[in-house]
């Protein structure tokens, strides 16, 4: 992901190397200047060194600023691309449902930000240390060969051995810290969102204890991480100190033997001291590699989640505009949620003519909501076809399909914003007049107008300030703004009392107008208003017909209405169970 900005990072590494080399050169030149000044030379002999000292000081500051500017700019641009990729991936609905909400937020925020450390602290400092370290070792070797070799050994220990050890020790700690951060976020979000139920059932103490345990785990992992950073810094300081002492001992011995002068000894000693500025950041960066790797793995778990909806590419313009209106035909539709999972839909087929009202009923778990998910393009079929006006929906972009098929999912989401903004999700350019018109069509205009802020009324988190019926009506109004010719209503009256349910269903059907409606429901009331009813059991259509026709023949639909099966001619009397006769009660049905 950072490769497109490789030239920027290379320039940042060069600036870091210049800054580090300027720092080492500044201290080495200062050592030469002070040691030479002690011999009382002429001022002219020192003027060049004074000018160079000032130049190195300015160069160090400018180069360090440029290094920070360039590397952070490249890193932040790379992170921006990463976030775009993550958000683009999450624009498909299915990955959101595969992760806990709190953990997913941590992946998007903390884990994404953690990768910045890899680009800023894990890339430029090691490469800059490699470039500058080679120059410092060359200078030390030119002054005193044994001193240069000892300096090389010290830099290898401080810049390679200590960081490698820190990285090895920090790998497990980093994984635990990333996982603990996600668990804490998930536990906290669960406790906050589920607070009313937790309080009602006396389970809040257990939820708080879970948050405290997650926090304690994260705190312990952070302590281990801090201790590891301290050990890395201590190891680097120990190597630097031992290297400096060894260099001084070799230098003093060389001065006593006459092979090294006092001024070069000062230069060698302070160069050795300054050289470890090169490798000082490396142990801390290496210790963080475990956490960075774990965060990266969690981030790419989201990016690598295989899509449940294939996008052939292209939007409305590339597709030549919206789909041509026409009948919806589902043929031999098969869907399952995993290779080893049972079929949620197993050869299902149905038809919805333009302007028709069709209901899909069946027991819980029969595949009704899976059918709605396929029509909403939340899932692709494993086999079979879904066509609208003769066009296979899987052959067009999901955005194109959703322009033609809209509706209300089983659990429509209202954002913590205003009524106006919740409606404009479907049509951002809609005027207030259009919004009032669609609210009137779902019989919600009077309620919204009675609110002090009108369209600017805040609906609350998940629409908590609205009743269940009002939320359903608002979701339908949003669907009507799309101008879709087919409305899929997935359990639109769930959890509503009978009076509210009837009112909402009346409004739904009336507001639909001449649009086709596919009603997915487990509620068997009001199906007399449907043109056709499909009964789905175990992912298959087991019955199909009108309400009256299905009641007239034996099957799931008649049994679900608790009506006796039509008795066949038996040559006598047949005892048939009757509703309201009690357990095992029968009434004589008479001659059949």
UniProtKB/TrEMBL annotation:
Residues 328-563 form the ABC transporter domain. GO terms for cellular component: plasma membrane. The chain crosses the membrane at residues 31-52, 127-145, 151-169, 228-253, 265-289. One of its GO terms (molecular function) is ATP hydrolysis activity. Keywords: ATP-binding, Membrane, Nucleotide-binding, Transmembrane, Transmembrane helix. Residues 10-294 form the ABC transmembrane type-1 domain. GO terms for biological process: cell redox homeostasis; glutathione transmembrane transport. It is a multi-pass membrane protein. SMART domains: AAA. It is found in: Cell membrane. The keyword ATP-binding applies. It holds the Pfam family ABC_membrane. This is Thiol reductant ABC exporter subunit CydC. It comes from Pseudonocardia asaccharolytica DSM 44247 = NBRC 16224.
């Amino acid at each position: 992901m950072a490769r497109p900005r490789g030239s920027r990072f290379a320039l940042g590494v060069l600036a870091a190397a210049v800054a580090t080399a300027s720092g080492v050169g500044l201290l080495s030149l200062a050592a030469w200047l002070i040691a030479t000044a002690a011999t009382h030379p002429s001022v002219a002999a020192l003027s060049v060194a004074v000018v160079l000292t000032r130049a190195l000081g300015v160069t160090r500051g400018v180069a360090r600023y440029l290094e920070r500017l360039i590397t952070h700019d490249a890193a932040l641009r790379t992170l921006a691309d990463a976030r775009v990729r993550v958000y683009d991936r999450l624009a498909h609905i299915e990955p959101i449902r595969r992760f806990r909400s709190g953990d997913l937020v941590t992946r998007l925020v903390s884990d994404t930000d953690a990768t910045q450390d890899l680009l800023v602290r894990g890339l430029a400092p090691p490469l800059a240390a490699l470039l500058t370290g080679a120059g410092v070792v060359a200078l030390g070797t030119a002054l005193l060969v044994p001193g240069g070799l000892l300096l090389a050994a010290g830099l290898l220990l401080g810049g390679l051995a200590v960081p490698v050890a820190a990285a090895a020790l920090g790998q497990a700690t980093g994984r635990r810290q990333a996982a603990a951060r996600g668990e804490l976020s998930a536990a906290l979000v669960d406790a906050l969102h589920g607070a009313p139920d937790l309080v009602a059932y006396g389970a809040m103490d257990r939820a708080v204890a879970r948050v405290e345990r997650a926090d304690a785990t994260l705190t312990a992992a952070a302590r281990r991480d801090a201790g590891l950073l301290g050990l890395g810094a201590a190891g680097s300081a120990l190597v630097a100190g031992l290297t400096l002492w060894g260099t001084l001992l070799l230098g003093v011995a060389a001065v006593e033997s006459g092979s090294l002068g006092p001024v070069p000894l000062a230069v060698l000693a302070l160069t050795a001291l300054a050289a470890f500025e090169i490798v000082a950041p490396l142990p801390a960066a290496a210790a963080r590699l475990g956490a960075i790797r774990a965060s990266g793995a969690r981030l790419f778990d989201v990016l690598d989640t295989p899509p449940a909806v294939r996008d052939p590419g292209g939007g409305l313009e590339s597709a030549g505009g919206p789909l041509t209106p026409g009948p919806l035909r589902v043929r031999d539709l098969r869907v399952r949620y995993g290779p080893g999972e049972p079929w949620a839909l197993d050869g299902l087929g149905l038809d919805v003519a333009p302007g028709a009202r069709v209901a899909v009923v069946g027991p819980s778990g029969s595949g009704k909501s899976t059918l709605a998910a396929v029509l909403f393009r939340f899932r692709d079929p494993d086999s079979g076809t879904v066509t609208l006006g003769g066009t296979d929906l899987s052959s067009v972009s999901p955005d194109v399909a959703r322009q033609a098929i809209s509706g209300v999912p089983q659990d429509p989401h209202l954002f913590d914003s205003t009524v106006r903004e919740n409606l404009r999700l479907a049509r951002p350019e809609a005027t207030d007049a259009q919004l009032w018109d669609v609210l009137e069509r779902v019989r919600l205009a009077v309620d919204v107008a009675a609110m002090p802020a009108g369209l600017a009324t805040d609906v609350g988190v998940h629409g908590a300030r609205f009743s269940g019926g009002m939320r359903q009506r608002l979701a339908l109004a949003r669907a009507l703004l799309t101008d879709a010719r087919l409305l899929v209503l997935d359990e639109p009256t769930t959890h509503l009392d009978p009076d509210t349910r009837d009112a909402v269903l009346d409004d739904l059907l009336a507001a639909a107008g001449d649009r086709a409606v596919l009603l997915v429901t487990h509620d068997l009331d009001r199906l007399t208003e449907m043109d056709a009813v499909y009964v789905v059991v175990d992912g298959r259509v087991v019955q199909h017909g009108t309400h009256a026709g299905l009641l007239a023949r034996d099957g799931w639909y008649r049994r679900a209405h608790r009506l006796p099966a039509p008795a066949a001619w038996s040559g006598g009397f047949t005892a048939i169970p009757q509703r309201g006769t009690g357990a095992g009660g029968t009434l004589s049905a008479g001659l059949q």
